[in-house]
Backbone:
């Protein structure tokens, strides 16, 4: 089964490099889980409802939350689709006892650039982190971006090959700090990306994680939260609910319209398709 999964992933390179990596890792783990559960000599085409139910039950027993289960089931559905067995996996997660993800933020997870960033010896990694804060870029986007082609003067244009799900998007360049961040990225990348020419994305990602760990830092996803919250303040004149601002029930009808427009704008700039997802960054 593990060999079949490897072949499926090689033949079907859907999504970004990160998505492909996470999918392959998840499927490999599933092959081991099924073997541990007593299902032997399976092939990719062997998928049946009992295998899906056994996996979900096993994951539940190991304390995994609904958000993680939902991600893993997305990989199971991908597997089922590729072997022509889509009907084996229920379309609705609730049929497997998995609740839809709740997009809420009770407390702010925003983080500004830590002073320890300046101690990272690799200037390209420093530049990527600054781009994450100034433009709300994902980690992968901040490495793959080619400033020479992305910088259109008044806006940053991200190509699909750099982004999650291959969705192109534009982010306005509004502040002096954004311009400074881009100018530094230009200097380091030249006509290429912020990944060194002699290094693949996968190798650079490992280098990135190593350098952050050595500096005592984590993945820094909170920089994206900080961008969203500062953008909300700019668009509405109010702090986001997650940052101590007014919640929905306290807004006037006019402010609610303004709130929704701001969320739609931020959702597009972050590369999401739904306004609902902004609750993760902004609260509700």
Residues:
């Amino acid at each position: 089964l593990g060999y079949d999964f490897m072949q499926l992933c090689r033949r079907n390179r859907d999504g970004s490099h990160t998505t492909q990596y996470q999918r392959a890792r998840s499927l490999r783990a599933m092959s081991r889980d099924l073997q541990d559960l007593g299902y032997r000599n399976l092939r990719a085409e062997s998928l049946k409802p009992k295998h899906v139910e056994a996996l979900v039950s096993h994951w539940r027993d190991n304390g995994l939350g609904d958000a993680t289960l939902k991600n893993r089931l997305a990989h199971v559905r991908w597997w089922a689709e590729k072997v022509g067995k889509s009907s084996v996996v229920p379309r609705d997660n609730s049929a497997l006892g998995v609740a839809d993800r709740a997009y809420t933020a009770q407390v702010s997870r925003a983080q500004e650039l830590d002073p320890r960033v300046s101690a990272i010896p690799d200037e390209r990694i420093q530049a990527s982190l600054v781009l994450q804060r100034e433009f709300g870029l994902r980690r992968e986007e901040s490495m793959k971006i080619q400033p020479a082609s992305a910088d259109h003067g008044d806006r940053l244009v991200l190509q699909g090959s750099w982004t999650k799900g291959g969705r192109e998007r534009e982010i306005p360049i509004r502040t002096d700090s954004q311009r400074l961040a881009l100018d530094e990225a230009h200097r380091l990348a030249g006509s290429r990306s912020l990944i060194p020419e002699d290094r693949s994305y996968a190798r650079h990602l490992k280098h990135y994680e190593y350098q952050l760990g050595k500096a005592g830092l984590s993945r820094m996803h909170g920089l994206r939260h900080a961008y969203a919250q500062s953008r909300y303040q700019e668009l509405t004149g109010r702090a986001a609910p997650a940052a101590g601002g007014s919640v929905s029930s306290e807004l006037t009808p006019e402010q609610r319209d303004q709130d929704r427009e701001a969320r739609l704008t931020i959702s597009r700039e972050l590369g999401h398709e739904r306004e609902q997802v902004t609750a993760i960054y902004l609260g509700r």
Summary: Residues 17-36 form the longest helix (20 residues). The mean pLDDT is 92. Strands lie at 155-158, 169-172.
